[in-house]
Design brief:
The chain is 68% helix and 0% strand. It is mostly helical and 468 residues long. It is a multi-pass membrane protein.
Length: 468
């Protein structure tokens, strides 16, 4: 694999192509199916009502699909580990490419520490006498080890971690549908609930506005699908495997997310969907499993959420380290960051990224709710910025492609309905970003993101403008 930048670091070696479609699909599913679905889905239903939540998740899926189509076209044409950072550099501008790489690094690094802390807190519920820090260190060392070993080992570990979540969601949807149609008993219901809860309080009990105000939560639920683009540079035969993985991942996610929302909404009154109690017990998954009569529902979902957190940390460390490797490969960081181990992993970038997780690790001890909410806001907003850059890059790439005398048929994979898809994808992502600015609890994170973006542009102008 050759770097897209003509000034790429001549001393760096190339990353190994070790991933298959199976790994890519699970990487994408694993990145997207997380605590947002297991814990956050009830909140969306409570705010929008059942039908509103279904519409919000379908809209979120369509936005994600438009962005992933744009990414698929770029990733097949130019399969590099820098992914959207490299695309933005080439098709928007060097400063924007530099900024996007750092923003995506921040997205995952900001949440790494919170993932380890949350997983450790859940373990402490099982083992109250063992310090949270011991679990945090165990998880951090394990995830770092999986990433350092080899790309193949990382991909395989992520496949199995993601599989736990996928199996849980499928079981939840199947058991939920059986309860809805009265084929298995459901607590508090003498006759089959069917779908009367969906419209028991009207189609939109809270009005239409909450559908749009919850779009940041919903869009963030689909974030992680873009990991396919990051992994394209380490994928066997990307022209075949990347489009396959994008289509498979998006449609599975739509089925999983919308299916989950339908089951929760049909079986639980929308006002209590996210109010079952504290922590894991507030998950609508726990409430439904308990009502169906599944023993140890709390423990099952606790285990699943721990695997979800570790899976997110695993793929997050992978993605952030590849962005750092790419910046070094393009000579926008010292060459030591593109140093590869014998097994082909960017060892220095991985270790430095892990140290970047320290602020998240401190969240439990210093104003945890404030720090967590703002870190979540930072991650959601930076993801929106990255998605906007993907749409913009593809729009400009296709314009250049046509100007060079080529047609869409000349591309190995072409996003349909150009230029409608990138324009709509960009506009919807932009609106989602504005919704964050309107949330008082997220304004500190929003301002912090804008300052970080401005700093990236300034540092690129001062230090690197002559190198690109």
């Amino acid at each position: 694999m050759q770097s897209s930048n003509s000034n790429a670091n001549p001393e760096s070696k190339t990353l190994k192509r070790a991933m298959s479609t199976r790994h890519l699909v699970m990487l994408s599913l694993g990145g997207a199916i997380g605590t947002g679905l297991f814990l956050g889905s009830g909140e969306v239903i409570a705010q929008t009502g059942p039908v509103g939540a279904i519409i919000a998740y379908i809209l979120g899926g369509l936005i994600a699909y438009m962005v992933m189509l744009c990414l698929g076209e770029l990733a097949v044409h130019m399969p590099v580990a820098g992914s959207f950072g490299a695309y933005a550099q080439k098709y928007i501008g060097p400063g924007t490419g530099y900024m996007i790489s750092w923003v995506y690094w921040l997205t995952w690094t900001a949440t790494l520490g919170t993932e380890f802390t949350a997983a450790a807190l859940l373990m402490q519920e099982w083992f109250p006498h063992i310090s949270m820090w011991i679990w945090t260190i165990i998880f951090a060392v394990t995830i770092l080890g999986l990433n350092l070993t080899s790309t193949r080992m990382f991909a395989e570990s992520e496949f199995w971690l993601a599989l736990v979540k996928v199996v849980t969601v499928i079981a939840f949807i199947i058991l939920g549908l059986l309860a809805i149609f009265g084929l298995i008993p459901f607590h508090g219901s003498e006759s089959a609930p069917l779908f009367h809860n969906l419209t028991a309080h009207g189609w939109f009990p809270q009005g239409l506005v909450p559908i749009f105000t919850t779009m940041l939560i919903v869009n963030f639920a689909f974030s992680g699908t873009e990991l396919i683009g990051v992994a394209a540079g380490e994928t066997k035969d990307p022209a075949v495997n990347v489009p396959k993985a994008i289509n498979a991942a998006i449609w599975r996610l739509l089925i999983f997310f919308v299916g989950t929302i339908i089951v929760i909404s049909a079986l639980l009154p929308f006002q209590i969907a996210g109010l079952g109690g504290e922590g894991v017990s507030s998950s609508p998954f726990v409430t439904v499993f308990n009502y169906i009569g599944i023993p140890y529902a709390d423990d099952i979902i606790r285990f699943v959420i721990i695997t979800a957190l570790l899976s997110a940390a695993n793929s997050g460390l992978y993605a952030a380290s590849r962005m750092m490797w790419s910046l070094s490969d393009q000579r926008q960081l010292p060459s030591v960051f593109s140093k590869l181990s014998k097994s082909g992993t960017p060892i220095i970038a991985l270790v430095v990224t892990m140290f970047g997780a320290i602020p998240g690790l401190l969240s439990e001890h210093f104003a945890p709710e404030t720090i967590f909410k703002n870190l979540l806001g930072v991650a959601a907003f930076t993801m929106v910025i990255v998605w906007m850059s993907i749409c913009w890059s593809q729009f400009n790439f296709r314009r250049q492609w046509y100007k060079a005398g080529h047609s869409a048929k000349d591309l190995k994979f072409a996003a349909p309905l150009y230029p409608i898809v990138p324009i709509l994808g960009f506009i919807f992502c932009f609106i989602t970003g504005l919704s964050m600015a309107a949330d008082p609890e997220m304004q500190a994170g929003f301002i912090g993101c804008l300052l970080f973006i401005a700093t990236c542009y300034l540092s690129h102008y001062v230090f690197y403008r002559d190198r690109t």
